[in-house]
């Protein structure tokens, strides 16, 4: 009877331990529960051999390939085993010896990002309004609707500001930390594309470095 092991590599894994186990980077289904448990506890990458050279402030990246996983499985199960990979061909493993940033550092990073996004967005909106001459548009629209000259401040500015805010909320499908619906938002799509492109680039660079 043929023995088959199904594996599904993850795209990326953030490791908190110097030793990366197979269960961290891969889902496994094999011909027996005992074999599955044994495989899941196999070490696929070990940072401890570089621990003296590791800077705790840096993040270290390694590539665990499907070929490496297959070699480990064959050592445990024998060369006659059939292995089917249902996932990625490579997993990007990132390890930071110092662990995650403290809550205070994370808070300041988040606050800085919020300030930059706020003023950057405000400047972009003002530049857009100036580019299309929104003041002139409001004056012409107000005169067409009322037959009178538009005052310095009118309902148009208020409704425009409210509509702009509501449009942003609906478009990004978030209000604060709450999601308005289960639909995938444009920002989630772009973040997914960015992450995938980043991981593909890391794999390509690391592969070329090994080739050199």
Polypeptide structure, described:
By secondary structure, the protein is an alpha/beta fold. It has 2 domains: 4-96, Sandwich (eubacterium ventriosum atcc fold), CATH 2.60.480.10; 103-211, no CATH class. It is 52% helix and 20% strand. Strand 9 and strand 10 form a beta hairpin. The longest helix is centred in the middle third of the chain and has 29 residues, at 103-131. The radius of gyration is 27 Å and the shape is elongated. It starts with a strand and ends with a helix. The mean pLDDT is 83.
Name the features.
alpha/beta; three-stranded mixed beta sheet; 20% strand; elongated
Précis, in short:
This protein is of the alpha/beta class.
Main sheet properties: 3 strands, mixed
Which consecutive residue ranges, at least 5 long each, have pLDDT under 50? Answer: none
Classify the beta-strand content into a percent band.
15-25%
What is the β-strand count? 10
* Pattern of helices and strands: EEEHEHEEHEEHHHEEH
Helix count equals 7
Radius of gyration: 27 Å
Distance between the termini: 43 Å
Approximate helicity band: 40-55%
Number of domains: 2
How are the SSEs placed, and which strands pair?
Layout: E1 4-9, E2 12-15, E3 19-21, H1 22-25, E4 26-29, H2 33-40, E5 43-46, E6 59-65, H3 66-77, E7 82-85, E8 90-96, H4 103-131, H5 134-146, H6 155-172, E9 174-175, E10 178-179, H7 186-211
Parallel strand pairs: 1-7, 2-8
Antiparallel strand pairs: 1-4, 3-5, 6-8, 9-10
């Amino acid at each position: 009877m043929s023995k088959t092991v199904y594996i599904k590599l993850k795209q990326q894994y953030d490791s908190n331990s110097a030793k990366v186990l197979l269960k961290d980077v891969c889902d496994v289904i094999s011909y027996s529960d005992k074999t599955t448990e044994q495989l899941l506890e196999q070490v696929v990458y070990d940072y401890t051999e570089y621990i003296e050279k590791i800077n705790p402030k840096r993040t270290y990246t390694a590539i665990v390939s499907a070929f490496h996983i297959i070699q480990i499985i064959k050592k445990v199960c024998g060369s006659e085993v059939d292995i089917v990979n249902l996932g990625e061909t490579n997993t990007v493993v990132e390890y930071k010896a110092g662990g995650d940033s403290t809550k205070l550092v994370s808070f300041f990073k988040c606050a800085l990002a919020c300030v930059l996004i706020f003023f950057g967005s405000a400047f972009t909106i003002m530049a857009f309004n100036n580019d299309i001459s929104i003041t002139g548009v409001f004056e012409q629209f107000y005169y067409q609707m009322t037959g009178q000259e538009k005052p310095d401040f009118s309902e148009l500015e208020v409704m425009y500001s409210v509509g702009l805010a509501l449009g942003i909320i609906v478009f990004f499908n978030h209000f604060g930390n709450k999601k308005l619906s289960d639909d995938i938002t444009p920002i989630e799509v772009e973040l997914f594309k960015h992450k995938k492109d980043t991981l593909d680039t890391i794999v390509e660079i690391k592969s070329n470095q090994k080739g050199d």
